[in-house]
Amino acid sequence: MRNKIRLLILFLILIQIKPASAQTTPTDLTINLYSDGVTRLDYLFPAEITSLQTNISLIGQSYQSLIILNEEGLPLEYVQNSDGLTVYSLGSSLVNLTYLTSELTGKNGVIWSLNITIPISSRIILPSGATIINLNIIPLEIDSINGQTSVIMPSGLLLIEYTVNIIGSDIIAEEAITEAESAIQAAESNNIVVTSAKNLLNEAKAFFQEDLFLEAEEKASQIIPLIEVITENKNLAEATIIAAESAIEAAIETGRTNGIAEAESMLNDARLKYQAGQYEEASYISEQALQAAINSEKEQNNILSYVVILSAALILVGIFFQSRRKSSDREPKPAREIEFNLELLFKEHPELRLDDREVLKFLSENDGEAFAYDIRERFDIPRTSAWRMIQRLQRYEVVDEKKIGGQSLISIKEKYRRKPE
After folding, report:
1. pTM tops 0.85, yes or no
2. Do the beta carbons of residue 158 and residue 115 sit within 8 Å?
């Protein structure tokens, strides 16, 4: 009997299902402004339980980190259209929608501005330490939420101009600079040339003197990772130079002198690069010297020479993998079908950060593209940080973003693709 009643209720609901609802106006809208210009919008929309879908208009055109839930916290499917979104909300009475965007704010000098049209009276929450310097209309209410200024503005055209002074940003920047100085001193005490790190430190100090504390902290925070990379490159260069020296000595001792002069010349160049702190170039040249020693003219029956040179090569391989122990458990990557000219890209965009460059290398190794989710997993970074990085790379016009099944596919721009020879 109960089953019959349930079937009857389901039937009654189904015969009342409407093909779609009319355009929906939100019942609540909260706009959070962050200190870097990113905006978070939180909407509540009513929905008819018997409607297949709810049509929603949103502020802006870019909806990053979009989350749509019903009143029970369950995700709802959606498609994007020219006017906003179509949400498949059958069985739901409420649509809770959240997304991030960086297109709603602008900056002129130290003054930020939000200039939009809001459909209903909305709460605007400014960044911590922000000061409002201009409003186009009188707010309905002014309050403070967790130390942040909050204003409720009436519907219509909205203009808010404000400045941001992040509390404690000078202390954070100063601590980052101090840590960077200590890291540089420790590296130099180990005879590591860290000229590029010292240049970054000078830039950080210059920003700090101009009271640009966020920029100073960002520059200073790049120094320790950079020193780690330099140290790794130094160890690898040292290992390849030792292996090349061993191979050359073995070749000379066994009378295999044809080609050794060239190998010794390259080894001397590698040593000079090493002393100058050009560790990557030193590794490359010493590898060439090692190969030249191995390929020098061999005597037909001198098995010992083969053994000695092979041992030198194995020493190089062992030291190389020891220096790369953090990545030794990764699976080998398949041969790339598409190659990109990262040298040109990095030359055109010297402003790229170290983490930006690593992500671009990762994309290049994957035929120039990867989903945002894969980038977050590969580099173990939060969703918001990954989104801001992708936005930054788009501003530099080095990557494109394409939506595929609700996922963001990030790809290096076509102009950096190497043409087949």
Report:
1. no
2. yes
